[in-house]
Amino acid sequence: MVALARSRRVQPQPAEDAAFEADVLAGLSATPKRLLPKYFYDGVGSLLFERITELPEYYPTRCEMRILRDHARDIAKLVSEGAALVEFGSGSSKKARILLRALRPLAAYVPVDICGEMIEQEALELRPDFPGLKVLPVTADITQNFALPAPAKAAPVRVGFFPGSTIGNFEPHEAAAFLRNAGRILGTGATLIVGADLIKPVEVLNAAYNDAAGVTAKFNLNLLVRINRELGGTFKLDTFEHHAFYNRERHRIEMHLASLKRQKVKVAGEIIEFRAGETIHTENSYKYSVESLGALARGAGWQPAGVWTDERKYFSIQAFTLAV
Ligand code: AVJ
């Protein structure tokens, strides 16, 4: 379990601060207003997301863990001895642990995450459990280019691991760009193991993003808390409401923060005006089919190499190899 006491304050880099401010101001000045979901994951946001994964309505994490446990041996066959495992957006590394237990000895495990606090802590907890494994965390935005640590570069082959359906946060064209970029980072002979949430009955989807305990609402609203703290924002939390719904045409869950009244809010010295009912679009969570993700990956230079799903076909783990 992730304890609140565990989170330390780490000063964000000035460059990250500047990017956050610029992205927030651009998003709140746009029509319709929007914010990028990657900014959910400050220390508090990462802990709230951990709580989401334990909610009864939120099936993706449990399904993915089940698939990993049931098929770890099969999946491990795609990772040769001495390979480097690079995890994109690793968060708590809970899923990597399952995979790591099934894998042959690796050159290194490289968790990459935007939340430095989280992965440094996870690395500390992982090392004693996997003695002999080089755990080399990289704090980076996975949508940007980043350098791999030397032992991962020197390995004969690199395997990407992108669990959690984080790929669903990207627009389809961005997902394709991400997959192409991952191919560049991982290099010749690479394998990529991706977790993707599947299209399913709308009631199941809507419940997963509108939990009874209100944790998803808190997670969504935490973005405003973060803006208030880091950018001198004046958002009044009780004047915004969590909205989440499945958009059938676009196969995605949309999350919004709706202003309950007409109001003005100050952010980083700028005044942002809201109409009553106007929303900030904070997240898309795209749902795929095995075929639609396969087509996207093929277009980005990857060849389908394996698919595993749970019994209800709620979630999928899909493997690809880099086409030469
Ligand atoms: C981490 C992007 C996979 O889309 O289900 C959970 C984030 N947002 N509840 C998802 C999220 C609201 C999650 N991903």
What is the ordering of alpha helices and beta strands?
HEHHEHEHEHEHEHHEEEEEHEE
**Got a strand count?**
13
DSSP strand content? 15-25%
Give the quaternary arrangement of the chains.
single chain
Q: What integer value in Å does the Rg equal?
A: 20 Å
Q: Quick one: biggest sheet?
A: 7 strands, mixed
What is the topological layout?
Layout: H1 14-29, E1 33-34, H2 43-52, H3 59-76, E2 84-88, H4 94-102, E3 108-113, H5 116-129, E4 138-139, H6 150-154, E5 158-162, H7 172-186, E6 191-197, H8 202-208, H9 215-230, E7 240-247, E8 252-259, E9 263-267, E10 270-274, E11 279-286, H10 290-299, E12 302-309, E13 315-322
Parallel strand pairs: 1-11, 2-3, 2-5, 3-4, 5-6
Antiparallel strand pairs: 6-13, 7-8, 8-11, 9-10, 12-13
Helix pairs in contact: 2-9, 3-4
The protein binds N,N,N-trimethyl-histidine.
N,N,N-trimethyl-histidine (AVJ) is lined by residues 52, 60, 164-166, 168-169, 209, 216, 283, 285.
What can you see in these coordinates?
This protein is an alpha/beta fold and 324 residues long. It contains ten helices and 13 strands. The strands form three sheets. Strands 4-3-2-5-6-13-12 form a seven-stranded mixed sheet, with helices on both faces. Strands 1-11-8-7 form a four-stranded mixed sheet. Helix 4 links the parallel strand 2 and strand 3 (108-113). The radius of gyration is 20 Å and the shape is globular. 41% of the residues are buried. Residues 1-10 have low confidence and may be disordered. The structure holds N,N,N-trimethyl-histidine. N,N,N-trimethyl-histidine binds at residues 52, 60, 164-166, 168-169, 209, 216, 283, 285.
